[in-house]
Design brief:
It is built from 10 helices and 10 strands. The protein has about 300 residues and is an alpha+beta fold. The chain has 3 domains: about 120 residues, no CATH class; about 100 residues, no CATH class; about 55 residues, no CATH class. A 5-stranded antiparallel sheet has the order 3-4-10-9-8. Strands 5-6-7 form a 3-stranded antiparallel sheet. It has a two-stranded antiparallel ribbon with strand order 1-2. The radius of gyration is 30 Å and the shape is flat. The protein starts with 14 loop residues before the first helix and ends with a helix.
């Protein structure tokens, strides 16, 4: 979508200019002094700045027509900023304001909002593997592994389907005849009664075997290998809750999965573990040598 002609004197007027030229401010000046269309990132920043100015300062920085056109342009460009929820937009606005040295919310509110969005697997909180200069630790974002969590329901689904097939066979395919009734009775029985009942029973059986299950996946902050962690009980055996220690199968680093913050922290790198093992082996060897020397004396 062309928002504005690059040259006012070329005799060309875009469709949007004919509607009042509300897109005039969405052009920038390039190195040659010519008007150039603004980048997607610049338009996203302008959108968030407009939201911040309106909701937190009560001062609009653009007209309603300009804001609507900017939002439409972002949607057509495939930007996710224009279709974010109010909480996601508020989080991005707070992040931008903090980067400019003008925070619009307290640290507690920001951390709470960030944790809430992470629990919803929001893309705005995804940062990837990173290092913290302050804590000197490596972090990575964790997210639910819905594929593996769905696979946990397969035993319950197969068990319920087996019962349905057994009942169908024992009643001389009575269930099949009910499902094959003419519309609307057959489809109502299938989609309104049979399938919801199967899902409910299968889910209940899964909760018996894997109570309050949650599987998180995250790339190892040290080597990037994808790792998984299970939270929840297995039948009567109490499982991990809150935090879980996992060893990376590739680099052997120890990582801590946090169920509530949805982050992974490297507790101990493979190098540190090797140094500790070497120190323990050297200490053991020294103790053995000392004991041997005493025995020889």
């Amino acid at each position: 979508m062309l928002l504005r002609s690059a040259n006012k004197d070329d005799g060309y007027m875009s469709e949007d200019e004919g509607l009042g030229n509300v897109a005039a401010d969405y052009c920038a000046i390039d190195g040659a002094g010519k008007k150039a269309k603004r980048s997607l990132g610049e338009m996203e920043q302008e959108f968030l700045a407009a939201m911040t100015s309106w909701y937190y300062e009560g001062k609009p920085i653009m007209s309603d027509e300009e804001f609507a056109l900017l939002k439409e342009e972002l949607i057509w460009s495939g930007s996710m900023v224009a279709v974010l929820s109010s909480d996601e937009q508020r989080f991005l606005e707070a992040s931008m304001a903090y980067a400019k040295g003008k925070p619009i919310m307290s640290d507690e509110e920001y951390d709470g909002l960030k944790a809430e969005l992470r629990n919803k697997s929001s893309i705005v909180t995804a940062q990837g593997p990173r290092c913290s200069i302050r804590s000197k630790k490596m972090y990575s974002d964790a997210e639910p592994d819905y594929l593996r969590m769905t696979a946990l329901n397969l035993p319950g689904v197969l068990f319920v389907l087996g019962i349905v097939f057994a009942v169908d066979f024992s009643t001389d395919f009575g269930v099949t005849r009910l499902v094959e009734l003419p519309a609307p009775y057959g489809p109502i029985l299938l989609w309104g009664l049979l399938l919801p009942s199967l899902f409910t029973v299968a889910y209940a059986l899964t909760q018996v075997g894997f109570k309050e299950n949650l599987i998180l996946k995250a790339p190892c902050p040290s080597c990037g290998t994808e790792n998984f962690s299970y939270f929840g009980d297995v039948f009567t055996v109490a499982g991990a809750r809150g935090q879980n220690l996992v060893e990376c199968p590739n680099c052997k680093a120890d990582m801590i999965f946090d169920e509530y913050k949805r982050v992974v922290v490297v507790a101990e790198t493979s190098e540190v573990k090797q140094e500790k093992l070497a120190a323990a082996a050297a200490k053991k060897a020294a103790a053995a040598a000392k004991k041997k020397a005493k025995a020889a004396a």
